[in-house]
Specification:
Elements: H1 9-19, E1 23-24, H2 25-34, H3 45-58, E2 61-68, E3 71-79, H4 81-96, H5 103-110, H6 117-145, H7 153-181
Antiparallel strand pairs: 1-3, 2-3
Helix pairs in contact: 1-4, 6-7
Length: 189
């Protein structure tokens, strides 16, 4: 019987990596880091095993101890049929109706009139500087993650390209907002 609850973003990130084949937690961490997945989902190294155990209890993954020559055995995780079906369903749902905007920024924007105009401008300028730095960092990670000829390279390119374009669009929006709000009163649109 299939669970009605779809995986959250961190769970989906792990499930989607297990679609590629059985892996142990440290392998998953290496792939997450190598592909820059932390740019798009909140998944810390310390939460990988917690999530894997949670998903095993839910029936989405199974695990077994696999001996390695000269090393301690490692727990290797494998996707179940239910886990695969939920992964496909969750990917479809996210492609069909994604949630692009972070609640943090939107809440700040909705309540911006609680702080003086000059402080709002300073906050938005700081945010813009942060986005410019983030753009450079994401671009640098993309160049390091590029391994031409690997099957996942098309996906990695899409992820990084989309992230960079979203950052660029937000910088453009901030530039217009800052220009409209300089001089004390917000100018009409």
């Amino acid at each position: 019987m299939m669970s009605k609850k779809l995986p959250n973003n961190s769970e989906l990130a792990l499930l989607s990596l297990l679609v590629e084949g059985p892996q142990h937690g440290y392998q998953l961490e290496q792939v997450i880091e190598g592909r820059g997945l932390r740019e798009w989902t909140e998944i810390g190294f310390s939460s990988i095993y917690y999530l894997l155990n949670k998903m095993q209890k839910a029936g989405w993954v199974t695990s077994e101890l696999v001996p390695e020559a000269g090393k301690p055995s490692r727990r290797v995780y494998c996707l179940t049929e239910e886990g695969m079906a939920l992964t496909v369903q969750a990917v479809h749902q996210r492609l069909e109706s994604p949630r692009y905007l972070s609640g943090d920024f939107m809440l700040g924007l909705a309540n911006q009139l609680l702080i003086p105009q000059e402080e709002r401008l300073a906050a938005m300028r700081t945010y813009r500087e942060t986005l410019v730095e983030r753009h450079a960092a994401v671009n640098e990670k993309w160049q390091r993650a590029r391994v031409p000829g690997t099957p996942m390279m098309v996906v990695v390119d899409d992820l990084f390209d989309h992230s960079l374009k979203m950052i660029e669009a937000e910088i453009d929006w901030l530039d217009a907002w800052i220009e409209q709000n300089e001089g004390g009163e917000k100018k009409g649109r």
